[in-house]
Automatic annotation (TrEMBL):
Highest taxon listed in the record's lineage: Bacteria
Stated name of the protein: EAL domain-containing protein
Coiled-coil intervals: none
SMART domains in the cross-refs: EAL, GGDEF
Record domain EAL: where: 431-683
UniProt source species: Oliverpabstia intestinalis
């Protein structure tokens, strides 16, 4: 209303009240002193005329028309107290002439918010105290205030009010595209959710979205926590968070807000670069717009032995290394169009191929970081996938191929990168096949244990053998261990395979022993995972005690990298084996970072020299000297030496001339089946 009722001439007050000039409002004009309703204005045209002109009419009218519909008990009590005749007169006598009340009012299925303005004054003739009470519908302004507060707090894509009782939603505002959801009109909630899931939500997430947004799921969570939210990706791969919170719990009114969380959801909190989802979405957008104009490549990076850096220098310094590594990539000549962190020390970059010079990657991937007073050398490596024209792969698949290339790096100190080749995919699929079909392959005995003899250096006679494994899947060519064993080790499934090999060798040895045939020691490899598996270690010890076969016919080989992280339980296990008379060999000696510490801290029966040394025999005097030194060192420490990977006479003679105890390789024997091995021993 414009102006104050107090400033309006007395004779015009009733006229103004009754004309309806102020729009959607109603009210009454009362004599407070005599508790009489003089006039009523009602836009809904209710018949209140009977309430006018009689004593006590004010109280009766309020009890019939107002009090039953006030939602909040406290609001009703306050309203009742204020409209008592004695209270209004007391307020008037204190000199106060204006009172304002607010409450929520429900009639039918709609909830409305009203503000009541009460203006009191004295009648100029009979001096009774009178007032004019105006009810103004403030529902829309109230909702606007609430929503404005929320909109100022965050970036919202939709604000709506849900009436659970009526299964009705009123959308106040939205910015969704590709949909015709009307605003400020009652919509059936389930239909509204279906419309959103079909038009606005990523296809693979629609079922989950419908379940999360269902009335049952939503109300159950609201009853527990008072608020409920979930995040979903929309059709444009942007992240949106749907939040439900009580607007009025008693009457089951809920405020729904949908906010754009793409930036927050796609940012890596440690580095402030993109995370995996952000990298994929941004790369997709660039490729979609520029696929035919430029040649792109995806590079997959990681830091070598990063977990070791964390252990030695602490996680805070590990985080610094990660940030410095990404900054180094971002500021390099690669000029990445997109750079993201996948997890831990793994990163992905989309680059313009013209900025990629593989030969220059060595300088980029190896650098120093100062930690305290120490300069720490950081070694990175990467795989490269050049995206072909009209590529039908999605970005995640492209990243997998770049990662696949990275995993094929053979000597990262010489060349710390690898470029994806199509034949890598076949090997990758075989590795995945190993993970998926391991149980089935074990049950159907697709894994075949082979035996490669080891000869004595002085005599050339067979002295022992090593148990190896081949995978003969569906009658195809046997798959060599280098294809599937690394994947089994990374996944932890290698223990099941090692158990199978160990039990197969045990049965082979027991069968020959009970038949009185010639016996030689057979070595079984144990992985780092085996030395963490208490059940496997206990089983091996138990079966060794139960077998009748002399313990010297059983051996176990442990690669050096496994021993560097061995647990106390694993150390006790190896001591028990040696106490039983089982020999323990250190395999792949010379490849680890703690080679001399390993042989210093634990006594092995023999060292197996890495075949990388053997292959270089006769090609480099320095390497030859290293081989001689290893043999001499082992002998001084009371250990035998086994050289594996011998392929020619020159290598054999060199090793024999310098006192190598045992020799293994294709020059002597290839791995053979149990049947062939038995025939060889029986000669």
């Amino acid at each position: 209303m414009e102006g104050s009722l107090k400033e309006t001439p007395y004779e015009k007050r009733i006229q103004r009240l009754m004309t309806g000039e102020d729009g959607d409002q109603y009210g009454f004009y009362i004599n407070i002193t005599d508790n009489i309703v003089r006039e009523v204005k009602n836009p809904e045209k209710a018949c209140w005329e009977d309430e006018t002109g009689r004593p006590g009419g004010v109280t009766h009218w309020l009890q019939q028309q107002i009090y039953p519909y006030i939602l909040d008990n406290e609001e009703e009590k306050k309203f009742r107290r204020t409209f008592l005749k004695e209270e209004l007169l007391r307020i008037f006598q204190t000199g106060q002439r204006h009172i304002q009340l607010g409450y929520r009012f429900r009639k039918g299925k709609y909830i409305t918010c009203y503000t009541v303005n009460i203006e009191m004054f004295e009648h100029p003739v009979d001096h009774t105290v009178e007032c004019c009470a105006i009810w103004r519908n403030d529902t829309i302004p109230y909702i606007n205030r609430v929503m404005t507060h929320m909109l100022l707090r965050d970036k919202y894509r939709m604000i709506a009010v849900l009436d659970i009782q009526e299964n009705t939603v009123f959308v106040r505002k939205h910015t969704f595209e590709n949909t015709e959801i009307p605003c400020d009109s009652p919509l059936e909630y389930e239909g509204f959710i279906r419309e959103l899931s079909e038009k606005c939500i990523q296809e693979k997430s629609t079922e989950w979205f419908q379940t999360s947004a269902s009335l049952n799921t939503m109300e159950e969570n609201l009853q527990v926590a008072g608020t409920y939210s979930f995040t979903v990706y929309n059709a444009d791969r942007g992240a949106e968070r749907y939040t439900y919170q009580w607007l009025d719990k008693e009457y089951r009114e809920v405020l729904i807000a949908v906010e754009d969380r793409t930036v927050e959801m796609e940012k890596d909190p440690l580095t402030d670069y993109l995370n995996r989802d952000g990298f994929v979405r941004k790369t997709e957008n660039i490729l979609k717009k520029n696929a035919d104009r430029y040649q792109f490549a995806i590079i997959y990076f990681n830091i070598r032995k990063f977990s070791g850096l964390n252990d030695v220098y602490g996680y805070e310094n590990g985080d610094r290394i990660i940030r410095s590594y990404m900054d180094r990539i971002q500021n390099s000549t690669l000029r990445p169009l997109v750079l993201g962190r996948v997890a831990a020390d793994r990163f992905q970059a989309l680059v313009d191929a013209k900025n990629l010079e593989p030969a220059a990657l060595g300088k980029l991937l190896q650098y120093q970081v100062k930690i305290g007073e120490e300069q720490v050398e950081i070694y990175g490596r990467c795989g490269i996938y050049y995206i072909p024209k009209q590529c039908k792969l999605d970005v995640s698949q492209m990243c997998d191929l770049a990662k696949m290339a990275k995993n094929k790096i053979s000597n990262q100190y010489v060349q710390p990168y690898a470029i994806y080749q199509e034949d890598m995919r076949t090997e990758y699929e075989q590795k995945n096949l190993a993970l998926l079909n391991l149980e089935k392959a074990l049950e159907q005995e697709e894994f075949v244990v082979c035996y490669q003899p080891v000869v004595e250096g002085k005599t050339g006679q067979i002295a022992s053998a090593e148990a190896l494994v081949r995978w003969n899947s569906s009658g195809e060519e046997p798959m060599i261990p280098s294809v599937f064993v690394p994947e089994l080790e990374d996944s932890g499934y290698i223990t099941k395979l090692d158990t199978y090999i160990d039990q197969t060798v045990r049965r082979f040895q027991e069968e020959r022993y009970h038949k009185g045939k010639r016996m030689i020691p057979v070595a079984v490899n144990l992985s780092r995972m085996d030395l963490m598996n208490s059940r496997l270690m206990e089983r091996i010890c138990t079966e060794l005690q139960e077998t009748k076969v002399p313990k010297q016919y059983f051996r176990y080989e442990i690669i050096e990298s496994a021993y560097t992280i061995i647990s106390k339980e694993g150390e006790e296990f190896l001591k028990r084996l040696r106490k039983e008379g089982v020999q323990i060999f250190l395999d792949d000696f010379g490849t680890g970072i703690s080679t001399f510490e390993t042989v210093r801290d634990y006594t092995f029966d023999a060292l197996k020299m890495d075949m990388g040394f053997v292959k270089k025999i006769g090609k480099d005097p320095k390497r030859d000297a290293i081989v001689i030194s290893i043999i001499d060192m082992a002998h001084r420490m009371g250990m035998k030496v086994v050289a594996e990977g011998i392929e020619n006479k020159q290598q054999s003679e060199f090793l024999c001339n310098h006192g190598c105890d045992y020799l293994q390789g294709y020059y002597y024997y290839k791995p053979m089946s149990a049947e062939e091995f038995s025939k060889l021993l029986d000669k």
